[in-house]
Amino acid sequence: MAGYFNYFPSTNYANNIATNIIAKVKFNESVQKNLAVFYDYSIQQGERADQIAYKYYNDAQYDWLIYLANDITDPYLEWFLINEQFDNYIKDKYGSIQTAQQKIAFYRNNYKDDDTTLTVSSYNSLNFLLKKYFKPVFDPSNVIVSYVRKELDQVLETNQVLVLSVGNTSFTENEKVTQGNNYGTLSSIGFGSITLTNISGSFSNTANVVGSSSNNSSNVSLVSVISQPISSIEATYWTPLSYYDYENELNLSRSIIKILDKNYVSKIEKDMRELFKWKIMKLVMFKYLKSS
């Protein structure tokens, strides 16, 4: 990756000349928007940017072009991880794979996984809360013939927020709290109460709740619904995504990268030199004005 920093300006740090690696650069906007300039490439298991650069540009030093084309600022955390690397990353970040699989990151509208088609009469008989999830399909005469799921790219932090009045508050924040087959994530602890989010099932005051990591058990005297962004009737239109699944999707998305057409390499190198010259000039001018 050494070639990546060849174009970065130098800066004085503690009386030493060092490469200013925080200088953020991007491709010229006209190049970035020209999709014909880039090619999609699927990273193979364990393949590095310098290996791809050598394969395509015949020069491993052009790994910086790979990073720049994909807006990667941290090659160690933003590069596609192989299975073992991914598992280690999850363990380091969440404590264990099981913990990451159990904790819900958010709820996502699941229209992409739903190919339901409703007749006009079926749509008209829907609960009014559900009609917003569908859009009409028209025939050539502009008459509605059916309804299908509407493209709603929405996410919600939680489906429901509950406050449980408990006799013992010796729980741990962010742990999983269960009551039989029901569970939620403990978001905060109050005086004689705990607040749960990401609720599965229905909590009641007829049984104790147990903390998964604290092992604390307590009776429940009252269950209060504070908010319910996703009503029970709408639940089927949303999918809870665990932190593990979220991280896995993010990692898999990084397996497909963009590679800049080799015919544009000389232009990009020239643009970067000019860009850094301009950055240095602005920095010198700023220091001059500040000192005067």
Outline of the structure:
The chain is of the alpha+beta class.
| Fraction in beta strands | 25-35%
Biggest β-sheet, characterized?
A: 7 strands, antiparallel
Terminus-to-terminus distance: 39 Å
Task: Estimate nothing, just give the exact number of structural domains.
Answer: 3
DSSP helix fraction: 25-40%
Secondary-structure topology with pairs:
Layout: E1 10-13, E2 16-19, H1 29-33, E3 38-42, H2 49-57, H3 63-69, H4 83-94, H5 97-102, E4 104-109, E5 117-118, H6 120-124, E6 134-138, E7 144-149, E8 155-156, E9 161-166, E10 176-179, E11 182-190, E12 193-200, E13 209-211, E14 217-218, E15 220-227, E16 238-242, H7 243-253, E17 256-260, H8 265-291
Antiparallel strand pairs: 1-2, 3-17, 4-8, 4-16, 5-7, 6-7, 9-12, 9-15, 10-11, 10-13, 11-12, 13-14
Helix pairs in contact: 2-3
